[in-house]
C-alpha cells in the first residue's frame, strides 16, 4: 500500500510540539539545572548546552511568561489607571537578548518579542508584532505588560496620557509618518564574560570563534542600523562589555566617528576596565554612565561572589575609574551589590567603598532565583526570608543610619523587612 507523504515541515513542527510537551512534563526549571551541572557540561559540551538552554528559554519559559502577563488579574482601579496613562518605551526603546530576540521593553516586564535580531532592521522595528505592542499602549489596555513586574505600573509612576511627551508620541503615531528608530538601545545578546559569579552562572562562558563571527556579522547588518538614531546604548545586561570580544569590537566600531552623539552606558564587573582598555576601545568622550557590580567589600567575599575576580585588581581599576569620574569624563558612577547571605554583613563597608571611589550611587538589590540554583542553594543564599538563620542579623544591618545616606539606593531590599518595620533616619550631619 502506498504510504501517505508527510511534508517535512509539518513533521518537524509536530516533533517540535511533542518536544515542548515532553520538556513541559519534565519541568523545564529542573531540566535547566540539570544541563548546567558541570558534569553534564563535560559530557555534552558548552555549545550544545547553550543551544538546549536557548531552546527551552524561547519555547517554554518565554511562553509561560507571556501567558502569565496576559492572565494576571486586573481590578477596575488598575484598568482605569492604565486608560489614563501612557508609556513611551515601545516607541523609543529596543532590547536584545542572548537568545537572539528583540524586545521593545525589558523582557521581564513585557515578555513578548518583536522578532529576531537578525531580521531586517526596518521590518523588525516597524513590523506587525511591534505595532501590536504599541497599539496596546495607545488603546490603554497595556495587555502585554506584566503589571506586577513593571516598575512604572506597580509604582503608578507612568506619565499621564494628556502629558506633553505622551501627546507628542501619540500625534506622531496617528499621523502615519514613518516611525523614528529607537533612541535607547540595551544590548544583551552576548553572554560572554570573564567571570562566573555563582549568582549568575555555573562556569565561565565565552562565545567560541564561530558564535563570535555570527555576532560580529550582526553588527553591520542589524545593530548599527538599529542604532542610527539612538542617543544612548547600554552594554550589557547579559555578559561583560570588556569580557566579550564581540562587544569590544562593537564598541570600537561605535567609536570610529559615525555615531558622534551616541553615549555608551557601561554595565560591567570592572575587572578588565583599566587605562589600556579605555585607550584601546577609544572610550574617551563616549561614556555616559558606568554601573560596576562589585557585591563585596572584602577580598575573600569578593573572591567567592565574583568567582575568578581579584579584589586587588578591582581596586586598581576603581582608582582609574575614579579619576574619570572626578574629571567629569563620566557623568554618573554606580556601584552595586546583589545582597545575599554571603555579603549582607558588608553593606556598610560597601557604602564606604562607594565614597572612597567617587561613586554617585551605591545600589542594593536582593539576589533573585535563577535556574542555576537548586531550591536548597537558593534558600541558603536568600537572606530576605524570615526563616533564614541570619535574618535577624540582616534586619539589624538594615537598621543602620549609614544606609539612609542619600548616596544609597536600597532597591527592593526593604521589601523584605517585616510589614510595619521602619528604617531609622540618617544621623544628623
Ligand atoms: C548579568 S550582569 C551583566 C553585567 C556585568 N557583567 C556585571 O556583572 O555588572 C547584570 C547584573 O545582574 C546582577 N546579577 C547577577 N546574578 C544575579 C541574581 N541571581 N540576582 C540578581 N541580580 C543578579 C549582577 O550583579 C549585575 O549587576
Ligand atoms: S511593561 Fe511597563 S515600561 Fe514596559 S511597555 Fe509596559 S508599561 Fe511601559
Ligand atoms: S560579571 Fe556579570 S555577567 Fe559575568 S558572571 Fe558575574 S554577574 Fe554574570
Ligand identities: S-adenosylmethionine, iron/sulfur cluster
Q: What fraction of residues sit in β-strands?
A: 5-15%
The coarse overall form would be: globular
Instruction: Count the E strands.
Output: 10
**Biggest pleated-sheet summary:** 10 strands, mixed
Order of helices and strands: HHHHHHEEEHHHHEHEHEHEHHEHEHHE
Which structural class fits the helix and strand makeup? alpha/beta
Distance between the termini: 92 Å
Mean pLDDT: 90
Low-confidence stretches: 1-6
Across the major sheet, the strand order is 3-2-1-4-5-6-7-8-9-10
Q: Level of helix content? A: 40-55%
Helix count equals: 18
Please state the CA-atom Rg, rounded to the nearest Å. Answer: 23 Å
